[in-house]
Amino acid sequence: MDHFPIFLHLAGRRVVLSGGGEAALAKLRLLLKTTAHITVFSADPAPQITAYAEAGKLTLIRRAMAPGDALCAALFYAADEDDAEDARTAALAHADGALVNVVDNLEDSQFITPAIVDRDPVTVAIGTEGAAPVLARAIKADLEARLPATLGPLARIGKAFRKAAEALPFGRARRDFWRDYYFSAGPAAIKGGEAAVKGALDTLLTEHLSRQARPGHVHFVGGGPGDPDLLTLKARRLLDEADVVIYDRLISQPILELARREAVMIDVGKEAYGPATAQETINDLIVQHAKNGAQVVRLKSGDATVFGRLDEEIEALDTHAIDWSIVPGITAASAAVAGIGQSLTRRGRNASARLLTGHDMKGFADHDWAALARPGEVAAIYMGKRSARFIQGRLIMHGADRQTPVTVVENASRPNERILATTLDALPAALSAAEMSGPALTILGLAPRAATDAAHRRNTDVIPTLYRHAESLQEAR
Ligand code: SAH
Protein backbone atom coordinates (compact mmCIF):
# COMPACT_ATOMS: atom_id res chain seq x y z
CA MET A 1 0.00 0.00 0.00
CA ASP A 2 1.75 3.15 -1.20
CA HIS A 3 -1.14 5.42 -0.24
CA PHE A 4 -2.58 5.20 3.25
CA PRO A 5 -6.23 6.24 3.47
CA ILE A 6 -7.15 8.67 6.25
CA PHE A 7 -10.04 11.07 6.86
CA LEU A 8 -8.70 14.59 7.30
CA HIS A 9 -10.45 17.05 9.61
CA LEU A 10 -10.89 20.10 7.36
CA ALA A 11 -13.31 22.20 9.44
CA GLY A 12 -12.00 25.76 9.41
CA ARG A 13 -8.82 24.86 7.53
CA ARG A 14 -7.59 26.37 4.29
CA VAL A 15 -7.74 24.49 1.02
CA VAL A 16 -6.26 26.22 -2.02
CA LEU A 17 -6.94 25.39 -5.64
CA SER A 18 -5.34 26.79 -8.76
CA GLY A 19 -7.39 26.63 -11.99
CA GLY A 20 -10.72 27.76 -13.32
CA GLY A 21 -11.87 25.11 -15.79
CA GLU A 22 -13.54 21.70 -15.77
CA ALA A 23 -10.78 20.02 -13.75
CA ALA A 24 -11.07 22.70 -11.07
CA LEU A 25 -14.87 22.38 -11.01
CA ALA A 26 -14.74 18.60 -10.59
CA LYS A 27 -12.54 18.96 -7.52
CA LEU A 28 -14.54 21.89 -6.15
CA ARG A 29 -17.78 19.89 -6.25
CA LEU A 30 -16.14 17.46 -3.83
CA LEU A 31 -14.39 20.05 -1.70
CA LEU A 32 -17.60 22.04 -1.24
CA LYS A 33 -19.05 19.09 0.66
CA THR A 34 -16.53 19.90 3.42
CA THR A 35 -16.46 22.76 5.91
CA ALA A 36 -13.02 23.94 4.75
CA HIS A 37 -12.20 27.53 3.74
CA ILE A 38 -11.62 27.23 0.00
CA THR A 39 -9.61 29.73 -2.03
CA VAL A 40 -9.45 29.52 -5.82
CA PHE A 41 -6.84 31.27 -7.95
CA SER A 42 -7.88 31.79 -11.56
CA ALA A 43 -7.53 34.68 -14.00
CA ASP A 44 -10.35 33.25 -16.08
CA PRO A 45 -12.81 31.32 -13.89
CA ALA A 46 -15.77 29.32 -15.25
CA PRO A 47 -19.18 30.96 -14.56
CA GLN A 48 -20.02 28.24 -12.01
CA ILE A 49 -16.93 29.12 -9.97
CA THR A 50 -17.88 32.80 -10.05
CA ALA A 51 -21.35 31.80 -8.86
CA TYR A 52 -19.87 29.78 -5.97
CA ALA A 53 -17.83 32.85 -5.00
CA GLU A 54 -20.87 35.12 -5.16
CA ALA A 55 -22.79 32.69 -2.95
CA GLY A 56 -20.00 32.92 -0.40
CA LYS A 57 -19.02 29.29 -0.77
CA LEU A 58 -15.41 30.04 -1.65
CA THR A 59 -12.96 32.91 -2.05
CA LEU A 60 -12.10 33.65 -5.68
CA ILE A 61 -8.92 35.54 -6.51
CA ARG A 62 -8.79 36.53 -10.17
CA ARG A 63 -5.12 36.12 -10.95
CA ALA A 64 -2.49 33.41 -11.28
CA MET A 65 -0.97 32.05 -8.10
CA ALA A 66 2.06 33.76 -6.59
CA PRO A 67 4.49 32.80 -3.80
CA GLY A 68 2.89 32.74 -0.36
CA ASP A 69 -0.65 32.20 -1.70
CA ALA A 70 -0.85 28.71 -0.20
CA LEU A 71 0.53 29.59 3.23
CA CYS A 72 -1.26 27.76 6.07
CA ALA A 73 -3.19 25.62 3.54
CA ALA A 74 -3.75 22.02 4.55
CA LEU A 75 -4.25 20.90 0.96
CA PHE A 76 -3.45 22.29 -2.45
CA TYR A 77 -4.87 21.22 -5.80
CA ALA A 78 -3.14 22.12 -9.06
CA ALA A 79 -6.01 21.98 -11.57
CA ASP A 80 -4.60 24.28 -14.23
CA GLU A 81 -5.08 21.85 -17.13
CA ASP A 82 -1.59 22.83 -18.27
CA ASP A 83 1.46 20.78 -17.29
CA ALA A 84 3.87 23.70 -17.02
CA GLU A 85 1.46 25.82 -14.97
CA ASP A 86 0.61 22.82 -12.76
CA ALA A 87 4.32 22.30 -12.09
CA ARG A 88 4.77 25.99 -11.26
CA THR A 89 1.79 26.25 -8.89
CA ALA A 90 2.57 22.90 -7.26
CA ALA A 91 6.11 24.04 -6.52
CA LEU A 92 4.77 27.27 -4.97
CA ALA A 93 2.30 25.41 -2.78
CA HIS A 94 4.94 22.93 -1.80
CA ALA A 95 7.21 25.76 -0.69
CA ASP A 96 4.30 27.12 1.34
CA GLY A 97 4.06 23.79 3.18
CA ALA A 98 0.77 22.46 1.78
CA LEU A 99 0.16 18.83 0.80
CA VAL A 100 -0.02 18.89 -2.99
CA ASN A 101 -2.24 17.13 -5.49
CA VAL A 102 -1.70 17.66 -9.19
CA VAL A 103 -4.90 16.67 -10.99
CA ASP A 104 -4.42 13.61 -13.23
CA ASN A 105 -0.76 13.39 -12.31
CA LEU A 106 -0.18 10.63 -9.78
CA GLU A 107 3.59 10.89 -9.90
CA ASP A 108 3.81 14.51 -8.81
CA SER A 109 1.03 14.26 -6.22
CA GLN A 110 1.65 13.80 -2.52
CA PHE A 111 -1.91 12.65 -1.95
CA ILE A 112 -4.76 11.50 -4.14
CA THR A 113 -8.50 12.03 -3.82
CA PRO A 114 -10.48 8.78 -3.65
CA ALA A 115 -13.79 8.04 -5.32
CA ILE A 116 -16.36 8.83 -2.63
CA VAL A 117 -19.73 7.39 -1.71
CA ASP A 118 -21.34 10.10 0.35
CA ARG A 119 -23.91 9.22 3.00
CA ASP A 120 -22.64 11.90 5.34
CA PRO A 121 -21.58 11.24 8.06
CA VAL A 122 -20.98 7.80 6.55
CA THR A 123 -18.37 8.17 3.84
CA VAL A 124 -16.84 5.38 1.78
CA ALA A 125 -13.56 6.23 0.10
CA ILE A 126 -12.36 4.02 -2.74
CA GLY A 127 -8.83 4.16 -4.06
CA THR A 128 -6.84 2.09 -6.53
CA GLU A 129 -3.59 4.08 -6.28
CA GLY A 130 -4.23 5.24 -9.81
CA ALA A 131 -4.13 1.67 -11.10
CA ALA A 132 -7.74 1.34 -12.18
CA PRO A 133 -9.97 4.42 -12.03
CA VAL A 134 -12.59 2.45 -13.99
CA LEU A 135 -12.67 -0.13 -11.24
CA ALA A 136 -13.00 2.54 -8.55
CA ARG A 137 -15.97 4.00 -10.41
CA ALA A 138 -17.58 0.58 -10.80
CA ILE A 139 -17.20 -0.11 -7.07
CA LYS A 140 -18.62 3.31 -6.30
CA ALA A 141 -21.64 2.71 -8.55
CA ASP A 142 -22.20 -0.66 -6.90
CA LEU A 143 -22.08 0.84 -3.39
CA GLU A 144 -24.25 3.79 -4.39
CA ALA A 145 -26.93 1.32 -5.45
CA ARG A 146 -26.57 -0.78 -2.33
CA LEU A 147 -26.40 1.80 0.44
CA PRO A 148 -29.81 3.30 1.12
CA ALA A 149 -30.06 7.09 1.15
CA THR A 150 -31.46 6.82 4.67
CA LEU A 151 -28.08 5.68 5.93
CA GLY A 152 -26.90 9.27 6.34
CA PRO A 153 -29.84 10.49 8.46
CA LEU A 154 -29.79 7.28 10.51
CA ALA A 155 -26.11 7.74 11.27
CA ARG A 156 -26.57 11.40 12.13
CA ILE A 157 -29.43 10.70 14.53
CA GLY A 158 -27.52 7.71 15.91
CA LYS A 159 -24.44 9.84 16.53
CA ALA A 160 -26.42 12.17 18.79
CA PHE A 161 -27.59 9.14 20.76
CA ARG A 162 -24.15 7.70 21.44
CA LYS A 163 -23.90 9.17 24.94
CA ALA A 164 -27.27 7.70 25.93
CA ALA A 165 -26.24 4.29 24.58
CA GLU A 166 -23.28 4.29 26.95
CA ALA A 167 -25.77 3.10 29.59
CA LEU A 168 -25.20 -0.30 28.00
CA PRO A 169 -22.02 -2.15 28.92
CA PHE A 170 -19.14 -1.66 26.47
CA GLY A 171 -18.62 -4.46 23.95
CA ARG A 172 -21.17 -6.94 22.72
CA ALA A 173 -24.21 -5.44 24.49
CA ARG A 174 -23.58 -2.05 22.90
CA ARG A 175 -22.79 -3.56 19.51
CA ASP A 176 -26.00 -5.59 19.55
CA PHE A 177 -27.93 -2.41 20.29
CA TRP A 178 -26.41 -0.53 17.36
CA ARG A 179 -26.83 -3.49 15.05
CA ASP A 180 -30.54 -3.61 15.89
CA TYR A 181 -30.79 0.13 15.30
CA TYR A 182 -29.06 0.30 11.94
CA PHE A 183 -30.44 -2.89 10.47
CA SER A 184 -33.93 -3.10 11.90
CA ALA A 185 -35.42 -0.49 14.26
CA GLY A 186 -33.87 2.53 12.49
CA PRO A 187 -34.87 1.69 8.90
CA ALA A 188 -38.36 0.73 10.14
CA ALA A 189 -38.87 4.13 11.79
CA ILE A 190 -37.21 6.44 9.25
CA LYS A 191 -40.38 7.01 7.21
CA GLY A 192 -41.89 8.73 10.25
CA GLY A 193 -39.07 11.29 10.24
CA GLU A 194 -36.51 12.25 12.83
CA ALA A 195 -38.91 12.21 15.78
CA ALA A 196 -39.97 8.64 15.01
CA VAL A 197 -36.36 7.50 14.78
CA LYS A 198 -35.56 9.13 18.13
CA GLY A 199 -38.58 7.42 19.67
CA ALA A 200 -37.43 4.09 18.25
CA LEU A 201 -33.98 4.62 19.77
CA ASP A 202 -35.48 5.24 23.22
CA THR A 203 -37.67 2.13 23.02
CA LEU A 204 -34.77 0.04 21.75
CA LEU A 205 -32.48 1.20 24.53
CA THR A 206 -35.05 0.37 27.23
CA GLU A 207 -35.46 -3.07 25.71
CA HIS A 208 -31.72 -3.71 25.52
CA LEU A 209 -31.11 -2.45 29.06
CA SER A 210 -33.50 -5.08 30.40
CA ARG A 211 -31.93 -7.91 28.36
CA GLN A 212 -30.03 -10.72 30.00
CA ALA A 213 -26.40 -10.88 28.81
CA ARG A 214 -26.05 -13.42 26.02
CA PRO A 215 -24.19 -16.50 27.25
CA GLY A 216 -20.91 -17.41 25.56
CA HIS A 217 -21.09 -19.66 22.54
CA VAL A 218 -18.53 -21.44 20.41
CA HIS A 219 -18.96 -21.95 16.67
CA PHE A 220 -16.62 -24.48 15.14
CA VAL A 221 -16.31 -22.96 11.70
CA GLY A 222 -14.82 -24.64 8.64
CA GLY A 223 -12.65 -22.00 6.97
CA GLY A 224 -12.33 -23.95 3.71
CA PRO A 225 -9.12 -24.56 1.77
CA GLY A 226 -7.95 -20.93 1.62
CA ASP A 227 -9.89 -19.05 -1.08
CA PRO A 228 -12.15 -16.64 0.86
CA ASP A 229 -14.81 -17.05 -1.84
CA LEU A 230 -15.12 -20.66 -0.72
CA LEU A 231 -16.33 -19.70 2.76
CA THR A 232 -19.99 -20.32 3.47
CA LEU A 233 -22.23 -17.29 3.97
CA LYS A 234 -22.72 -18.43 7.54
CA ALA A 235 -18.97 -18.55 8.16
CA ARG A 236 -18.65 -14.99 6.84
CA ARG A 237 -21.44 -13.74 9.06
CA LEU A 238 -20.07 -15.44 12.17
CA LEU A 239 -16.59 -14.07 11.48
CA ASP A 240 -18.09 -10.64 11.20
CA GLU A 241 -19.87 -11.02 14.55
CA ALA A 242 -17.25 -12.88 16.59
CA ASP A 243 -15.72 -11.38 19.73
CA VAL A 244 -12.88 -13.86 19.65
CA VAL A 245 -11.43 -15.81 16.73
CA ILE A 246 -9.15 -18.73 17.54
CA TYR A 247 -7.54 -19.96 14.34
CA ASP A 248 -5.16 -22.54 12.98
CA ARG A 249 -1.98 -22.15 10.97
CA LEU A 250 -3.60 -23.01 7.65
CA ILE A 251 -6.18 -20.21 7.80
CA SER A 252 -5.22 -17.79 5.05
CA GLN A 253 -4.74 -14.05 5.61
CA PRO A 254 -7.63 -12.94 3.34
CA ILE A 255 -9.99 -14.95 5.55
CA LEU A 256 -8.65 -13.44 8.77
CA GLU A 257 -9.25 -10.01 7.24
CA LEU A 258 -12.98 -10.73 7.35
CA ALA A 259 -13.08 -10.67 11.15
CA ARG A 260 -14.04 -7.45 12.92
CA ARG A 261 -11.10 -5.21 13.59
CA GLU A 262 -11.89 -5.18 17.33
CA ALA A 263 -12.13 -8.97 17.56
CA VAL A 264 -9.49 -10.72 19.65
CA MET A 265 -7.49 -12.83 17.18
CA ILE A 266 -5.65 -15.79 18.65
CA ASP A 267 -3.26 -17.84 16.54
CA VAL A 268 -2.94 -21.39 17.83
CA GLY A 269 -1.16 -22.57 14.67
CA LYS A 270 -0.07 -26.14 14.78
CA GLU A 271 2.94 -27.29 12.86
CA ALA A 272 2.71 -30.61 11.05
CA TYR A 273 4.18 -33.14 13.47
CA GLY A 274 3.64 -31.90 16.96
CA PRO A 275 1.41 -28.97 17.90
CA ALA A 276 2.90 -25.51 18.44
CA THR A 277 0.15 -24.83 20.98
CA ALA A 278 -0.71 -27.87 23.09
CA GLN A 279 -4.26 -29.14 22.55
CA GLU A 280 -5.02 -28.66 26.26
CA THR A 281 -3.99 -25.02 26.01
CA ILE A 282 -6.31 -24.55 23.02
CA ASN A 283 -9.17 -26.23 24.89
CA ASP A 284 -8.55 -23.97 27.90
CA LEU A 285 -8.50 -20.85 25.72
CA ILE A 286 -11.80 -21.69 24.07
CA VAL A 287 -13.46 -22.52 27.39
CA GLN A 288 -12.13 -19.42 29.11
CA HIS A 289 -13.34 -17.00 26.42
CA ALA A 290 -16.75 -18.64 26.14
CA LYS A 291 -17.14 -18.54 29.93
CA ASN A 292 -16.49 -14.80 29.80
CA GLY A 293 -19.56 -14.54 27.57
CA ALA A 294 -17.74 -14.16 24.26
CA GLN A 295 -19.07 -15.34 20.91
CA VAL A 296 -16.11 -17.45 19.89
CA VAL A 297 -15.33 -18.60 16.38
CA ARG A 298 -13.01 -21.58 16.47
CA LEU A 299 -11.79 -21.38 12.90
CA LYS A 300 -10.34 -24.54 11.44
CA SER A 301 -9.07 -25.06 7.92
CA GLY A 302 -11.22 -26.98 5.45
CA ASP A 303 -14.04 -28.70 7.28
CA ALA A 304 -13.78 -28.67 11.07
CA THR A 305 -14.85 -32.31 11.26
CA VAL A 306 -12.02 -33.62 9.08
CA PHE A 307 -8.74 -34.29 10.90
CA GLY A 308 -9.37 -31.31 13.10
CA ARG A 309 -9.26 -32.80 16.64
CA LEU A 310 -12.77 -31.47 16.99
CA ASP A 311 -13.99 -34.02 19.54
CA GLU A 312 -11.36 -33.06 22.09
CA GLU A 313 -12.48 -29.44 21.95
CA ILE A 314 -16.16 -30.37 22.09
CA GLU A 315 -15.58 -32.56 25.13
CA ALA A 316 -13.86 -29.69 26.91
CA LEU A 317 -16.87 -27.45 26.21
CA ASP A 318 -19.35 -30.12 27.32
CA THR A 319 -17.48 -30.49 30.59
CA HIS A 320 -18.17 -26.81 31.24
CA ALA A 321 -21.73 -26.92 29.83
CA ILE A 322 -20.90 -24.36 27.13
CA ASP A 323 -23.08 -24.20 24.01
CA TRP A 324 -21.45 -24.97 20.69
CA SER A 325 -22.34 -25.62 17.07
CA ILE A 326 -20.55 -26.77 13.93
CA VAL A 327 -20.52 -24.86 10.65
CA PRO A 328 -19.32 -27.11 7.81
CA GLY A 329 -16.66 -25.97 5.37
CA ILE A 330 -15.13 -27.18 2.12
CA THR A 331 -12.56 -29.80 2.91
CA ALA A 332 -9.18 -29.92 1.13
CA ALA A 333 -10.17 -33.09 -0.74
CA SER A 334 -13.08 -31.31 -2.43
CA ALA A 335 -10.89 -28.36 -3.39
CA ALA A 336 -8.11 -30.61 -4.68
CA VAL A 337 -10.30 -32.75 -6.95
CA ALA A 338 -11.95 -29.57 -8.21
CA GLY A 339 -8.46 -28.29 -9.01
CA ILE A 340 -7.72 -31.28 -11.24
CA GLY A 341 -11.15 -31.26 -12.84
CA GLN A 342 -12.07 -34.68 -11.50
CA SER A 343 -14.97 -36.19 -9.65
CA LEU A 344 -14.25 -37.81 -6.30
CA THR A 345 -16.55 -40.73 -7.11
CA ARG A 346 -17.60 -42.06 -10.51
CA ARG A 347 -20.04 -44.72 -11.63
CA GLY A 348 -18.21 -47.83 -12.69
CA ARG A 349 -14.86 -46.65 -11.31
CA ASN A 350 -15.16 -46.08 -7.60
CA ALA A 351 -18.31 -46.21 -5.52
CA SER A 352 -16.50 -44.93 -2.46
CA ALA A 353 -13.68 -42.55 -1.68
CA ARG A 354 -11.73 -42.46 1.53
CA LEU A 355 -10.29 -39.65 3.53
CA LEU A 356 -7.04 -40.79 5.10
CA THR A 357 -4.34 -39.19 7.13
CA GLY A 358 -0.70 -39.91 6.40
CA HIS A 359 0.25 -39.71 10.03
CA ASP A 360 -1.50 -39.73 13.34
CA MET A 361 -0.53 -39.14 16.96
CA LYS A 362 1.60 -42.28 17.00
CA GLY A 363 3.46 -41.67 13.74
CA PHE A 364 2.60 -43.01 10.28
CA ALA A 365 -1.05 -44.00 10.27
CA ASP A 366 -2.09 -47.57 9.56
CA HIS A 367 -4.90 -48.35 7.14
CA ASP A 368 -6.58 -51.23 5.37
CA TRP A 369 -3.79 -51.35 2.79
CA ALA A 370 -5.11 -54.44 1.01
CA ALA A 371 -8.42 -52.68 0.30
CA LEU A 372 -6.69 -49.47 -0.80
CA ALA A 373 -4.38 -51.39 -3.14
CA ARG A 374 -7.28 -52.65 -5.26
CA PRO A 375 -7.58 -51.16 -8.78
CA GLY A 376 -9.91 -48.17 -9.08
CA GLU A 377 -9.70 -47.15 -5.40
CA VAL A 378 -9.68 -43.43 -4.74
CA ALA A 379 -8.36 -41.91 -1.52
CA ALA A 380 -7.62 -38.37 -0.42
CA ILE A 381 -4.58 -38.43 1.81
CA TYR A 382 -4.22 -35.52 4.24
CA MET A 383 -0.85 -34.72 5.78
CA GLY A 384 0.64 -37.20 3.35
CA LYS A 385 3.84 -35.52 2.20
CA ARG A 386 6.24 -36.93 4.73
CA SER A 387 4.59 -40.32 4.78
CA ALA A 388 4.65 -40.70 0.97
CA ARG A 389 7.36 -43.34 0.96
CA PHE A 390 5.70 -45.28 3.77
CA ILE A 391 2.32 -45.23 2.02
CA GLN A 392 3.87 -46.21 -1.30
CA GLY A 393 5.70 -49.13 0.35
CA ARG A 394 2.57 -50.43 2.09
CA LEU A 395 0.42 -50.20 -1.03
CA ILE A 396 2.93 -51.92 -3.30
CA MET A 397 3.49 -54.60 -0.68
CA HIS A 398 -0.26 -55.27 -0.80
CA GLY A 399 -0.25 -55.63 -4.56
CA ALA A 400 -1.06 -52.12 -5.83
CA ASP A 401 -0.19 -51.38 -9.48
CA ARG A 402 2.94 -49.25 -9.53
CA GLN A 403 1.45 -47.20 -12.37
CA THR A 404 -1.60 -46.17 -10.29
CA PRO A 405 -2.05 -42.43 -10.88
CA VAL A 406 -1.33 -40.22 -7.91
CA THR A 407 -1.85 -36.45 -7.94
CA VAL A 408 -0.59 -34.08 -5.30
CA VAL A 409 -2.35 -30.72 -5.07
CA GLU A 410 -0.48 -28.10 -3.08
CA ASN A 411 -2.29 -24.95 -1.86
CA ALA A 412 -5.58 -26.10 -3.38
CA SER A 413 -7.89 -23.18 -4.25
CA ARG A 414 -5.19 -20.58 -3.52
CA PRO A 415 -3.48 -18.35 -6.10
CA ASN A 416 -0.30 -20.42 -5.72
CA GLU A 417 -2.00 -23.77 -6.30
CA ARG A 418 0.33 -26.35 -7.84
CA ILE A 419 -0.56 -29.72 -9.28
CA LEU A 420 1.89 -32.57 -9.43
CA ALA A 421 0.71 -35.55 -11.46
CA THR A 422 2.72 -38.70 -10.96
CA THR A 423 2.38 -42.43 -10.29
CA LEU A 424 2.56 -44.52 -7.16
CA ASP A 425 5.96 -45.71 -8.35
CA ALA A 426 7.42 -42.24 -8.80
CA LEU A 427 5.59 -40.51 -5.92
CA PRO A 428 8.40 -40.08 -3.35
CA ALA A 429 10.94 -38.89 -5.95
CA ALA A 430 8.46 -36.55 -7.65
CA LEU A 431 7.46 -35.07 -4.29
CA SER A 432 10.97 -34.34 -3.16
CA ALA A 433 11.82 -32.84 -6.58
CA ALA A 434 8.78 -30.55 -6.37
CA GLU A 435 9.90 -29.13 -2.99
CA MET A 436 6.40 -28.31 -1.82
CA SER A 437 6.27 -26.15 1.27
CA GLY A 438 2.51 -25.44 1.40
CA PRO A 439 -0.28 -27.74 2.56
CA ALA A 440 -0.68 -30.55 0.07
CA LEU A 441 -3.31 -33.17 -0.52
CA THR A 442 -2.35 -36.46 -2.14
CA ILE A 443 -5.03 -38.04 -4.29
CA LEU A 444 -4.51 -41.72 -4.81
CA GLY A 445 -6.14 -43.18 -7.93
CA LEU A 446 -6.88 -39.98 -9.87
CA ALA A 447 -4.89 -38.10 -12.52
CA PRO A 448 -5.78 -34.59 -13.66
CA ARG A 449 -8.45 -34.73 -16.35
CA ALA A 450 -6.78 -35.20 -19.74
CA ALA A 451 -5.52 -32.17 -21.66
CA THR A 452 -8.26 -32.27 -24.32
CA ASP A 453 -11.01 -32.27 -21.71
CA ALA A 454 -9.24 -29.61 -19.72
CA ALA A 455 -9.23 -27.08 -22.56
CA HIS A 456 -12.37 -25.44 -21.21
CA ARG A 457 -10.52 -24.55 -18.04
CA ARG A 458 -7.76 -22.67 -19.84
CA ASN A 459 -9.55 -19.39 -19.51
CA THR A 460 -9.08 -19.34 -15.76
CA ASP A 461 -6.62 -16.67 -14.78
CA VAL A 462 -4.49 -18.91 -12.59
CA ILE A 463 -2.77 -21.69 -14.46
CA PRO A 464 -0.90 -23.71 -11.89
CA THR A 465 2.81 -23.91 -12.58
CA LEU A 466 2.95 -27.65 -12.79
CA TYR A 467 -0.26 -27.99 -14.70
CA ARG A 468 1.43 -28.28 -18.07
CA HIS A 469 3.70 -30.90 -16.59
CA ALA A 470 0.61 -32.76 -15.47
CA GLU A 471 -0.91 -32.56 -18.93
CA SER A 472 2.17 -33.83 -20.69
CA LEU A 473 2.42 -36.74 -18.29
CA GLN A 474 -1.20 -37.51 -18.99
CA GLU A 475 -0.60 -37.45 -22.73
CA ALA A 476 2.42 -39.71 -22.38
CA ARG A 477 0.37 -42.31 -20.57
N1 SAH B 1 -9.75 -29.86 8.34
C1 SAH B 1 -8.91 -29.76 7.18
C2 SAH B 1 -7.73 -30.71 7.24
C3 SAH B 1 -6.77 -30.43 8.36
S1 SAH B 1 -5.38 -31.49 8.34
C4 SAH B 1 -9.74 -29.98 5.91
O1 SAH B 1 -10.90 -30.38 6.01
O2 SAH B 1 -9.22 -29.72 4.81
C5 SAH B 1 -4.22 -30.51 7.41
C6 SAH B 1 -3.99 -31.11 6.04
O3 SAH B 1 -5.05 -30.77 5.17
C7 SAH B 1 -2.76 -30.61 5.33
O4 SAH B 1 -1.60 -31.28 5.76
C8 SAH B 1 -3.08 -30.92 3.90
O5 SAH B 1 -2.88 -32.29 3.62
C9 SAH B 1 -4.57 -30.65 3.85
N2 SAH B 1 -4.88 -29.30 3.37
C10 SAH B 1 -5.46 -28.29 4.03
N3 SAH B 1 -5.62 -27.21 3.24
C11 SAH B 1 -5.13 -27.56 2.04
C12 SAH B 1 -5.00 -26.87 0.80
N4 SAH B 1 -5.42 -25.62 0.64
N5 SAH B 1 -4.44 -27.54 -0.23
C13 SAH B 1 -4.03 -28.82 -0.09
N6 SAH B 1 -4.11 -29.48 1.04
C14 SAH B 1 -4.66 -28.88 2.11
Describe the structure.
With 477 residues, the chain is an alpha/beta fold. It has four domains: 14-113, 3-Layer(aba) Sandwich (Rossmann fold); 151-209; 218-330, Cobalt-precorrin-4 Transmethylase, domain 1 (3-Layer(aba) Sandwich); 333-476, Methyltransferase, Cobalt-precorrin-4 Transmethylase, Domain 2. It contains 18 helices and 19 strands. It has helices at 22-31, 47-54, 83-95, 133-146, 151-160, 162-165, 172-189, 193-209, 233-241, 253-256, 279-291, 310-319, 332-339, 369-372, 388-397, 427-434, 451-454, 467-476, and strands spanning 14-18, 37-41, 59-61, 73-78, 99-102, 115-119, 122-126, 217-222, 244-247, 264-267, 295-300, 323-327, 353-357, 359-360, 363-364, 378-382, 405-410, 418-423, 440-444. A five-stranded parallel sheet has the order 3-2-1-4-5, sandwiched between helices. A hairpin with a 2-residue loop joins β6 (115-119) and β7 (122-126). α7 (172-189) packs antiparallel against α8 (193-209). The longest helix is centred in the middle third of the chain and has 18 residues, at 172-189. Bound molecules: S-adenosyl-L-homocysteine.
Topology:
Elements: E1 14-18, H1 22-31, E2 37-41, H2 47-54, E3 59-61, E4 73-78, H3 83-95, E5 99-102, E6 115-119, E7 122-126, H4 133-146, H5 151-160, H6 162-165, H7 172-189, H8 193-209, E8 217-222, H9 233-241, E9 244-247, H10 253-256, E10 264-267, H11 279-291, E11 295-300, H12 310-319, E12 323-327, H13 332-339, E13 353-357, E14 359-360, E15 363-364, H14 369-372, E16 378-382, H15 388-397, E17 405-410, E18 418-423, H16 427-434, E19 440-444, H17 451-454, H18 467-476
